[in-house]
Amino acid sequence: MGWFRRSRKKQTQPVEQVDLWTICPSCKAHIYKEEWAKALMVCAKCGFHDKLTCHERVACTVDEKSFRELDRDIKPRDHLKFSDAKSRYADKAKETTEELGINEAILTGRATLNGIPIVLGVMDFRFIGGSLSSGVGDKIYLASDYALRHKRPLILFSASGGARMQEGIVSLMQMAKTCAGISRLNKAGIPYISVLTNPTFGGVSASYAMVGDLNIAEPGALIGFAGRRVIEQTIKQTLPPDFQTAEYLLAHGFVDRIVPRSEMKDLLAKVLCYGRRGKPPCKP
Amino acid sequence: MGWFRRSRKKQTQPVEQVDLWTICPSCKAHIYKEEWAKALMVCAKCGFHDKLTCHERVACTVDEKSFRELDRDIKPRDHLKFSDAKSRYADKAKETTEELGINEAILTGRATLNGIPIVLGVMDFRFIGGSLSSGVGDKIYLASDYALRHKRPLILFSASGGARMQEGIVSLMQMAKTCAGISRLNKAGIPYISVLTNPTFGGVSASYAMVGDLNIAEPGALIGFAGRRVIEQTIKQTLPPDFQTAEYLLAHGFVDRIVPRSEMKDLLAKVLCYGRRGKPPCKP
Amino acid sequence: MNLDFEQSITEIEQQIADLQKKAEADGSNVKSDLSSLQKKLEAQIKKVYSELTPWQTVQVARHPERPIMRDYIKGMFSEFIDLHGDRCFGDDQALVGGFATIGSHRCVLIGMDKGRTVEEKIKANFGMSNPDGYRKALRLMKLAEKYQIPVVSLVDTPAAYPGREAEERGQAEAIARNLTEMAGLKVPIVVTVTGEGGSGGALGIAVGDSVLMLSHSIYSVIPPEGCAAILWRDAEKAPEAAEALKVTAPSLLQMGIIDEIIQEPVGGAHRDPAATFTATRSAIVKRLSKLKKLSEHKLLAQRREKYARIGKYDRRRHSTH
Amino acid sequence: MNLDFEQSITEIEQQIADLQKKAEADGSNVKSDLSSLQKKLEAQIKKVYSELTPWQTVQVARHPERPIMRDYIKGMFSEFIDLHGDRCFGDDQALVGGFATIGSHRCVLIGMDKGRTVEEKIKANFGMSNPDGYRKALRLMKLAEKYQIPVVSLVDTPAAYPGREAEERGQAEAIARNLTEMAGLKVPIVVTVTGEGGSGGALGIAVGDSVLMLSHSIYSVIPPEGCAAILWRDAEKAPEAAEALKVTAPSLLQMGIIDEIIQEPVGGAHRDPAATFTATRSAIVKRLSKLKKLSEHKLLAQRREKYARIGKYDRRRHSTH
Ligand SMILES: [Zn+2]
Ligand SMILES: [Zn+2]
């Protein structure tokens, strides 16, 4: 769990004493940083699930030291030579890569989960809002391909604002590409579990994130196609407070279960045992 | 079209002059019987589609003299030795058979429709409310089997109050049996068109009638699972006037098209041309 | 809670209670009297339940203390992971489903839950599913097909819900679709009617390779009350209708509609739920073990033949009429 | 109706109108003047349309007189039998579909209709589909699969509808499901972007073996206005965003996103719909004829490869960085 200790340096405050505490973004409770990390960034007071970095997520999801990264070299490519008012995409991508020490908004790899061999993909919202780029799409497609060839279940943790518009149409097409990967798993009977974390929107919710054999969500995660503000502008109405929460999606039939972070690993292990297709059954 | 002339004797009034006229059950308009029959029992004033006997339906649906009945010998069987307060089912079935000159609430056969070889089933509401009995289920299953073996599309016209309760659970099981027949057609790619006529309810709407490749309805036909009165009693509310009409089902996504009787044959011929799977295309 | 026809049982139970009260009050030794009364009680229960009329069976099948879905889940499955939603509209609370393990078999479990408390009953709509429930069940069955694990279905519903929104969202279509898809589902399906097998609402999750029935459960094309109201023009004639409709397990076994009767403990499932679960689990596990050995082709052909046979017109037998 | 950037065209048209009015009034012979003005007009239209900026192309793609679904149906198909409903919830009016015949090919046709009159536009929700629309399209595509006939998809939508009920009923799920199912659909799919290819709302019916685009249509991950609002913090910068996003057909062809550009008549599809239909029909028919020759296996492998290639990381090219 080294990642939990190393992480969150950026939030360090100048005053030394404050450094021991963190403030829950939801209920504003003051919580010891050590406790906060031990609780996997879940607030003991209000149950708020804070975002995790991809390394934190890997650490709390798979068996220790079992993770082997795949396709680490894949990084953003500037298909459009895109620049907006402020900056060039190529620069932004490079800066982000250097700052975070990861090459894209998703980390993929093989690992074991309670001893079960899996293929895992974990998005990182810090990387340009977890946006779906050609690099992300490629890594997911390759992960699904690896899962297919090695008959391992695929688990993808989503956290994304949607498509990466700086890659234009190439980004949009990654929706089709990732779903083509999932389609192959469906035909071959390879399990695919989608875990939706806060937030999952747009081109990610409207592609691989929503077509899991199981769609599992973290409590309180916001999940939807269009953003709340866009919808409010369109329909000129205020939306209910629980709109697009995981709980709302459960009630409307799009999520199988809401699973707290502390129970996620065991739940995943349990459900994976049902998709073994003739392989020896899991240990009870 | 002999059936149209011969039919409807029962409605004859004692006064001779009245005999020339019929009264539209919907708008109460007086219409010449000859015109009424020529319009296939559709009211020229209000468009009301009156029920047809199975022979009338066959006459206006397939090519003249092309119909060859299948499984004509199948008749009701009294699996339960059922009798209610008034009568024995065995007697009722026998009387109905003799009165109508048909053995069951469905007539099945092979025929051609604008030259296209088909298998046809036509329910007759006069036969104990067009109820789904083991005989009806058997004839439909056998018709689907014939369609499968001869690679002919299957067209079923429904008109039924639901399962025939006098045959108890055996009647209920015909829902599963007929759907098993349709399932085979789906897997083999044989077209199955369901035509829903007034009324189609209960065990018939909840089985083969609702799972056509196309569900086609006649205008104004009442179609539903539970009857209006049962629902009103359950929810203690009055239902809207258009509830369970073909038009209502179209709006709610369960019917592909509403087709007036006069256009039915040509429409069927047209859509059948799309399900030929490599056979020479239909004439334009 | 005893039913009307259990008056003779209630009387003996009262005698036992009186005797115990007396013994507590005056310390008299009632051990042997009590023992003989207990034997009498057991004998009486056995007698009453061996002579149940169809209408009495209907009442037992609807007994408020009869085990329901949630009890069977706890009592028969070593693991249950409830899964939710039809991926289209909602998550029907009347129809429960998920991954479950029974004996050594991992499966998809579906079934109606009626709820126990008033709040639960309302939430579960008294076990009457809306179209969303049937669609959730179908989604889970398709998942079982992808994962190549069998489907276990527990049936206990008065009916599919006859409501306005149920019609709007296609109650008929949802049931019909399930019948069609279940006929061709490529994994074993074992169905057990545990309480009320209410018409199309039950059948919507009850097409299977093996259909079992608890000995005091019922399965009917229409509720006896409804049949009586139509054919006798008097809902009070439900007992006659229940008789005429042949809704009990022995009749259904005789007619070849079901494959096996699971014997309930003396006095009905509600008098000994644990024994009920043991018997039911054992029956289901046996069926699963057997069905799993069949090839996909054989399984589907056999399932189709099973339904094709029900009510099949036998030309040799009937042509003489 | 002329667009802002067509000022030079409008001026010549005005000159022609003035000349005609004058001739009518005084009977003067303006034949040769008129003829030269006509030539000038054609040349000017040609010039303007050969130099369209991306933002101007966006405006042409959204031109109120540009042919819409119903026009293509009438103009390209010898038969269209509209079919309705998703068999689950409703019949979305923004998404039209049914059996159709194009050239000698019988197919299932799906596409968005924007409506022409105000009433039609409202009924069609301006071509913005709800989940029911995507599910209807999927149902029809599955029908095409059963009947082994190809799917023709015409794309013209600003976006999937961003409404409350759309979210409630699973807009994201409906699109995602279509992408997944279309990737594995066992019949040829020919997609043509005829107007606006609006983001995921377009893609939800636009996964195919051949993706064609009319020369003045657009296809974008986000509407230029939306992109400008986010990245430029000013929706007025849409022209810059349109430029940056590379939304036009030539850019998309160059990037390997589409397979072919269908050349529109001079001055855009709305200036000569008949010629537009002829060119589009011919392109679609050619594609269908070619795709129908492929085996199912080859078809699906090729489709998958087509999408796997888009944005594929090329280790030989990028490893030098
Ligand atoms: Zn908190
Ligand atoms: Zn009339």
Description:
The complex is a heterotetramer, with two copies of chain A (284 residues) and two copies of chain C (321 residues). Chain A has ten helices and nine strands. With 284 residues, chain A is an alpha/beta fold. Chain A has two domains: 18-48, no CATH class; 51-274, 2-enoyl-CoA Hydratase, Chain A, domain 1. Helix content of chain A is 35%, strand content 17%. In chain A, the strands form two sheets. In chain A, strands 3-4-5-6-7-8-9 form a seven-stranded mixed sheet, sandwiched between helices. In chain A, strands 1-2 form a two-stranded antiparallel sheet. Chain C has 321 residues and is of the alpha/beta class. Chain C has two domains: 4-51; 58-309, 2-enoyl-CoA Hydratase, Chain A, domain 1. In chain C, strands 1, 2, 3, 4, 5, 6, 7 and 8 form an eight-stranded mixed sheet that branches. In chain C, strand 2 and strand 3 (105-112) form a beta hairpin. In chain C, helix 4 packs across helix 13 (273-292). The longest helix of chain C has 20 residues, at 7-26. The interface between A and D is large, with 63 and 59 residues. Bound molecules: zinc ion (ZN) (2 copies). One zinc ion is lined by residues 24, 26-27, 29, 43, 45-46, 48 of chain A.
